[in-house]
Amino acid sequence: MDDLQPQPASQATTAQATAAPDAVPPGLDGVNPSDSLLTNVKQLLRELPGLVSDRVHLLALELKRSGLALAQMVGLVIAAGVLLCTAWLALWVGIGIALVQAGLAWGWALLLILLLNLGAAWLAVKRALTLARYLALPATLRRLTLRSPEPSPRRGAGTDLSTPSAGAPDERPASVAGTP
């Protein structure tokens, strides 16, 4: 730091006189750069197992924590499902009682409730089955496979793109196919 401070002329000349005339500039300490690189690579290779093991240990801890969180989530979803089922039953019991008090025979009220629930269940299953084809990731599989594409029959100019051909996977663009 003293070298950076302004000094009287007598001190400056003595500092220059004491400095070695053949001193190597900083950064060029006489070591071969390839030796320095080799030393750095060796040091990196010595530290690499520690770095990797730290990352693997962190991954293992996070996987354990995420597994416990997933188990809790599944338990909470099951509990919510049970509570929703009891609420659903209570709702339909209330509707059934209201229908019976309105003068409808209890048999007809139960039949109406049963048909409404079966219709809703059928619609839910039908929708689930149409969504099931997306579980196989068809567009990703088409893009990632290395085999040559199979020739597909050419569609005429007047073919409607909004309806897929029978038995063929839906290969319409996302803007035409819609999103699930």
What does this structure look like?
This protein has 180 residues and is mostly helical. Among the domains are: 67 residues; 39 residues. It starts with 8 loop residues before the first helix and ends with a helix. This is Phage holin family protein. Keywords: Membrane, Transmembrane, Transmembrane helix. It holds the Pfam family Phage_holin_3_6.
Average pLDDT number: 77
Structural class: mainly alpha
Q: How many angstroms does the end-to-end distance come to?
A: 70 Å
Order of helices and strands: HHHHH
Q: Level of helix content? A: 55-70%
What ranges have pLDDT less than 50 throughout 5 or more consecutive residues? 159-163
Could you tell me the radius of gyration in angstroms? 38 Å
Shape: elongated
User: How many beta-strand segments?
Assistant: 0
InterPro entries: Phage_holin_3_6 (IPR009937)
Pfam family, one: Phage_holin_3_6
Keywords: Membrane, Transmembrane, Transmembrane helix
Transmembrane segments: 73-99, 105-125
Features:
single chain; 180 residues; mainly alpha; elongated; transmembrane helix; Phage holin family protein; membrane; transmembrane; Phage_holin_3_6
